[in-house]
């Protein structure tokens, strides 16, 4: 049955206008005023914004990490994402532990199939690029439509890649038409600082932040930029947190380097002082890079506004406080790194960005949906509202006020990093490819209905030049 969404205000990265939307099957087939359709279900969206579904380019669902596994799986994680207005995620497929990349990807398909309630793709997370991996990589990227790789400059004992590996990743990506995502922190310096702090008897969560200074992020960001440039390749810096890293990205983009950047809602609204909460509560706020001092928040908002950073990822990586976070009770370096953000990414950004007058409605859509879709080869099927696009739609009440709490969220985790925060705006109904996943704030979707998305290569027009990507 067709669906006719009437009287809403359609918002894209470019326009804001009143219109009705006619959806047939998975697609938007007509946009206009006073549309009628005899055989359609009518949805009245008066007073609501209609946004394209959020595209979250950074999640870790059911992922082995820091000697444990994240607590949200593909069912709880994608349902929570849908409640929050996200209809597509791109998750990180971990390749360590498998002897071929193909096996790792098959394992990730196994985690998602039958569980994902929204659409999804995979990035490939690589720790080494030996001859075997380099041979398999292009074949796998082609077959699976995986057009992005992630390499870590941090996590010395788990994933850290050396400069040679990083350079190889850039070279291989250039040839394969893929984008290299890099976690930019100097892992060796951090390892040294952590060892020293522990030797001096400092075990509390705040030392997680104190041993990962912003300079370590700025230095690594600079190195990644130069290595990408030397390889004539392209770089996407994940979870940017601080002025030091923003400066490097801004300078590179001004020189025309192919560099893009992401930040996350937690860095925009929380600060380092949260790690000082008593009774080990600071562990709830341990992730990497760490929360920074408050003055970095404005730098990040300004960078998003100016188009120096283009996207907002959740970096969803949840661990229960009264569970896996306790692994680090006597040693901050053993606290699993990550937090629960997939559900609140969209609404917090609307409330803090649009409602507080920092961003326009169109900039909001660009950052939470359109730019991630473009950068990761999903546009124009995803990331916009247009005839022929997938009917991934968020019917959003921009005025309702609510308080974020673990008591009401849908993630499989016993705390919210934003507990008690009052925000304005909430998704009322969410459609993914024309089907309601959330209707009137209730989940009516189907685990397993999410579709795996093969993505376009960057040389197929997925990627824009630095100047074109500015808002
Ligand atoms: N960010 C974080 O602490 N955990 C997830 C893994 C990563 O993205 O570094
Ligand atoms: Zn990372
Ligand atoms: Zn991450």
TrEMBL record:
UniProt-recorded Gene Ontology molecular function terms: hydrolase activity, acting on carbon-nitrogen (but not peptide) bonds, in cyclic amides; metal ion binding
A Gene Ontology cellular-component term: cytosol
Cofactor(s) listed in the protein's UniProt record: Zn(2+)
Coiled coil ranges: none
Protein modification: Carbamylation allows a single lysine to coordinate two divalent metal cations.
Keywords: Hydrolase, Metal-binding
Domain called Amidohydrolase-related: residue spans: 49-437
In-chain residues carrying the UniProt-annotated modification N6-carboxylysine: 150
SUPFAM superfamilies in the cross-refs: Composite domain of metallo-dependent hydrolases, Metallo-dependent hydrolases
A UniProt-annotated Pfam family: Amidohydro_1
CDD domains: D-HYD
Family per record: Belongs to the metallo-dependent hydrolases superfamily. Hydantoinase/dihydropyrimidinase family.
NCBIfam families linked to this entry: D-hydantoinase
Protein name: Dihydropyrimidinase
Protein's organism: Heyndrickxia coagulans (Weizmannia coagulans)
């Amino acid at each position: 049955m067709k669906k006719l969404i009437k009287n809403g205000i359609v918002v894209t990265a470019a326009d804001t206008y009143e219109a009705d939307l006619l959806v047939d099957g998975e697609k938007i087939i007509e946009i206009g005023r006073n549309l009628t359709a005899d055989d359609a279900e009518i949805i009245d969206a008066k007073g609501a914004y209609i946004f394209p579904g959020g595209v979250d380019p950074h999640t870790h669902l059911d992922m082995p990490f820091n000697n444990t596994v994240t607590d949200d799986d593909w069912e709880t994680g994608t349902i929570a994402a849908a409640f929050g207005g996200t209809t597509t995620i791109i998750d990180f497929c971990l390749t360590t532990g498998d002897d071929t990349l193909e096996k790792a990807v098959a394992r990730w398909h196994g985690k998602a199939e039958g569980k994902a309630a929204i659409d999804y793709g995979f990035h490939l997370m690589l720790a080494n690029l030996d001859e075997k991996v380099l041979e398999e990589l292009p074949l796998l990227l082609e077959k699976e439509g995986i057009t992005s790789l992630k390499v870590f400059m941090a996590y010395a004992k788990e994933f850290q890649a050396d400069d040679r590996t990083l350079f190889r990743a850039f070279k291989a990506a250039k040839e394969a038409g893929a984008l290299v995502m890099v976690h930019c922190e100097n892992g060796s310096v951090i390892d040294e600082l952590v060892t020293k702090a522990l030797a001096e008897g400092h075990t509390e969560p705040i030392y997680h932040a104190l041993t990962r200074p912003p300079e370590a992020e700025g230095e690594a960001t600079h190195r990644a930029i130069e290595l990408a440039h030397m390889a004539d390749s392209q770089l996407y810096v994940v979870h940017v947190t601080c002025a030091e890293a923003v400066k490097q990205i801004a300078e590179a983009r001004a020189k025309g380097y192919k560099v893009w950047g992401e930040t996350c809602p937690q860095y925009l609204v929380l600060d380092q002082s949260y790690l000082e909460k008593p009774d080990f509560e600071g562990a709830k706020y341990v992730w990497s890079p760490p929360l920074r001092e408050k003055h970095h928040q404005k730098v990040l908002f300004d960078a998003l506004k100016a188009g120096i950073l283009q996207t907002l990822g959740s970096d969803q990586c949840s661990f229960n406080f009264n569970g896996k976070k306790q692994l680090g009770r006597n040693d901050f370096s053993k606290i699993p790194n990550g937090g629960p953000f997939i559900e609140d990414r969209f609404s917090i950004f609307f409330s803090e960005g649009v409602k507080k007058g920092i961003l326009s409605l169109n900039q909001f859509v660009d950052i939470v949906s359109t730019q991630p879709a473009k950068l990761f080869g999903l546009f124009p099927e995803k990331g916009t509202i247009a005839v022929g696009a997938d009917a991934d739609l968020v019917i959003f009440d921009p005025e309702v006020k609510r308080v974020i709490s673990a008591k009401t969220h849908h993630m499989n985790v016993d705390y919210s990093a934003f507990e008690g925060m009052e925000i304005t705006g909430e998704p009322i109904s969410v459609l993914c490819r024309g089907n309601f996943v959330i209707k009137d704030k209730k989940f009516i979707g189907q685990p397993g209905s999410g579709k795996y998305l093969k993505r376009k290569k960057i040389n197929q027009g997925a990627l824009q030049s630095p100047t074109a990507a500015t808002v």
